[in-house]
Design brief:
This protein is of the alpha/beta class and 257 residues long. Helix content is 29%, strand content 26%. It has one domain (2-245): Spore Coat Polysaccharide Biosynthesis Protein SpsA, Chain A, CATH 3.90.550. The chain has helices at residues 15-18, 33-43, 57-70, 106-112, 114-117, 135-145, 205-215, 234-245, and strands spanning 2-7, 27-28, 31-32, 48-53, 74-77, 82-85, 94-99, 122-126, 129-131, 149-154, 162-166, 169-173, 183-184, 188-190, 219-224, 228-230. The two termini are 25 Å apart.
Length: 257
């Protein structure tokens, strides 16, 4: 099964980092966040990725070319003038890097990928967030219900402290576990027929396609109660970095090699 990673946005709320690189290339623990996303999914057997490029997409291309060319030991033979890899990459992924336009909206990017995606169900997620979701459970849930799409619903961490009242007294909780309500957390399963509802490049996946599917009763939701964190701001980046450096990153389900 192919996984689309939407990686073409401007990342304006993280401008401290994204003036020089796209958000998926912002690093956590010395690796781009897109690498963390792919390592997590590959652990569950999803190893074919379609990266929808846009803003500064050439830097993402350059990263993956270098990653697969330079990963592992190299033998440099000065006499023969050759460079030879001595082992294959540790990441046995297949990665399609597809330019989908600098200003194309999220739904439009999927529209431009139809030829690559073919006629099989696929997953869509964002290139700026990590989670401990088990994608195989999302896939099984989607197949069981048989609708055109299934969104993974998450409860985002609250950004502010919360006040709780005990009569006239106040109890303050600085770090409530989750915010109110459910939101789209990515890891969206789609059948190819969903793409027929994307007419233009400026179509939004979130505000148009998913809403149209919901109106047609073709959208189901898999509720994920575990960890999920996007990287919208510098504060989010620091949070993820601290989790990684502390050895407490919930999305790291793979074994380090």
């Amino acid at each position: 099964m192919k996984v689309v990673i939407l990686a073409g946005g401007l990342g304006t709320r993280l401008s401290e980092e994204t003036e020089v690189r796209p958000k998926p290339m912002v690093e956590i623990g010395g690796r781009p966040i897109i690498w963390h996303i792919m390592k997590h999914l590959a652990h569950y057997g999803l190893r074919e990725f379609v990266v929808a490029l846009g803003y500064k997409g050439e830097s993402i291309k350059r990263y993956f070319v270098d990653h697969f060319a330079l990963d592992g030991p190299l033998l440099l033979d000065g006499e023969a003038g050759t460079i030879r890899r001595q082992s294959s990459s540790r990441d046995d992924w297949k990665v399609h890097l597809v330019d989908t336009g600098a200003t194309t909206n999220t739904g439009g990017r999927l529209r431009r990928l139809r030829a690559v995606l073919g006629n099989e169900p696929f997953m869509v997620t964002y290139g700026d967030g990590v989670s401990d979701v088990d994608p195989t459970q999302v896939i099984a849930f989607h197949k069981k219900l048989g609708r055109a799409a299934t969104v993974t619903a998450v409860r985002p961490p609250a950004r502010y402290g919360a006040l709780y009242f005990e009569g006239p007294l106040v109890r303050f909780n600085e770090k409530p576990r989750t915010g109110e309500g459910w939101i789209n957390g990515g890891y969206i399963m789609m059948n190819p027929r969903a793409l027929e509802l994307i007419p233009r490049d400026d179509t939004s996946l979130e505000a148009e396609l998913l809403e149209r599917l919901a109106e047609r009763r073709e959208l189901s939701a898999y509720q994920h109660e575990g960890f999920w964190q996007c990287m919208d701001t510098l504060r989010d980046k620091r949070l993820l970095e601290n989790l990684w450096q502390a050895g407490n990153a919930p999305w790291q389900v793979w074994e380090e090699q």
